[in-house]
Design brief:
Keywords: 2Fe-2S, Disulfide bond, Iron, Iron-sulfur, Membrane, Metal-binding, Transmembrane, Transmembrane helix. Helix content is 19%, strand content 29%. The chain folds into 2 domains: 1-41; 49-159, Rieske [2Fe-2S] iron-sulphur domain (Rieske Iron-sulfur Protein, 3-layer Sandwich), CATH 2.102.10. By secondary structure, it is α+β, with helices and mostly antiparallel strands. FE2/S2 (inorganic) cluster is lined by residues 101, 103-104, 106, 122, 124-125, 127, 140-141.
Length: 170
């Protein structure tokens, strides 16, 4: 007979603790993984979104280009629709401006006002921008429209995340 026998109570206690811990780990691991998995996934930064606008079709006249992409925000996936005003400047460089007014975020339109041809017009409070996105002094916006970085793929326009307008000299 052993000098330190395990009592029936101790045996049951060890066994139940072990089995209980194993079962708890089995339940908690999927929950933990679900909780932190989206955070651990590597996000593509600075990625460009494809549009259906052919580079060859872009002229000196700004046109609205709508584009759609899937957005993953942690656990929530959704379709996002964005727009850009796109044209070629005098040197042939593609300009893609955000339509989001820098006053309070309304949507600006090219030639949106008969009184101000060849300008972007914001209907909310009469904001005006020049063709390159520069805000017109004396109107509500306090800064130029943001601009999308652009790329070409297979002859089509791709747009990045809007940045501070590089076409407006300070
Ligand atoms: S939101 Fe555009 S002028 Fe106010």
């Amino acid at each position: 007979m052993s000098k330190n026998p395990v009592t029936r109570r101790q045996f049951l206690s060890y066994t139940l603790t072990g089995v209980g811990g194993f079962m708890a780990a089995g339940m908690l691991m999927p929950m933990l993984r679900f909780a932190i998995d989206p955070v651990l996934q590597v996000k593509a930064s600075g990625d460009f979104k494809m549009t259906d606008k052919k580079i060859a079709d872009i002229t000196a006249e700004p046109v609205r280009v709508d584009f759609e992409y899937d957005q993953v925000d942690a656990w929530y996936e959704s379709k996002v629709t964005n727009s850009a005003w796109v044209y070629k400047d005098d040197s042939g460089e593609i300009v893609a401006l955000s339509p989001i007014c820098k006053h309070l975020g309304c949507t600006v339109n090219w030639k949106g006002s008969d009184k101000h041809p060849d300008m972007f017009y914001c209907p909310c409070h009469g904001g005006l921008y020049e063709k390159n996105g520069k805000n017109v002094p004396g109107t509500p916006p306090r800064g130029p429209l943001d601009a999308y970085p652009t790329q070409e793929k297979d002859g089509f326009l791709m747009l990045g995340t809007p940045i501070e307008n590089p076409f407006v000299k300070k």
